[in-house]
Amino acid sequence: MGLFRFFRSGGKIAWILIASVLMVIAASTALLANTAEVRFERDVTRMVFNDNVGVLEDVRKGLGMEKDSIERQLSASPEAPAANQPYIVVSIEDHRLWYKQGDSVLFTTQVATGSGKILEKEGGSHWKFETPRGRLIVQSKEEDPAWVPPDWHFVEQARKRGLGLVRLNRGEEIPSGAGWAIAVTGANVVRRYPDGRETPIETGEDREIVVGGNIIIPPFGTNQRKYKGVLGTHRLNLGDGYALHGTNKPETIGRAVSHGCVRLRNEDIAHLHSAVGVGTPVYIY
Fold it and tell me: What span, in angstroms and rounded, lies between the C-alpha atoms of 76 and 134?
């Protein structure tokens, strides 16, 4: 009753305190609501600077802003293609692809698919290299695609060759022990010499940068993190790094050897690239 009489008697200080608390709560709520958006914009800016837009979906998923595009496609109802709409079918078991329209086969060939192997990460999780099953679509097409190897490539190479791993970040140097250092200048990972000279380092599949018994992981956006020729002559992107693409190892076709993509001989993917349009359904089973 004393508190009630206090408010009724016009306790201005109390009303001011209550209003202040409500304003603080409202401001805090707005701040929290904007945190995800601010973090997202920050990460997008960083990724664009590093030419690493490929991880955009992962960031959005981590913030709960959007489901992973592959998961979204696979969870959708498996719509049947229209009677006159061409579509692609891939059999993982048979290692074969068919390009069809209705019941007519327009083109067919052998392919390579995911190996199903598991590569352990530090901390108990792992990568599993399997081709996703379900209905996807061709999201975009490329000629002469460059492969930007994910981190698992460097982990896999280091374990295969008995080497350590060191991540190179922009603004840092890694001493070689031979009078020069590894650093990043612009879009290149370079050898930096004491006299100020810099020479870009050439890299490629099985030609990673090795210094002091460690494989160096270049930053995204550098030329040393882009391998030419690995994906063959053309690529049909399915989302989240999965694709139908060519290969520099045609002897692997017809086997379960890939890290999840569907590989074709270069002449076969060139034919599909010219025939298949963006939006074409791809059924993988």
Answer: 9
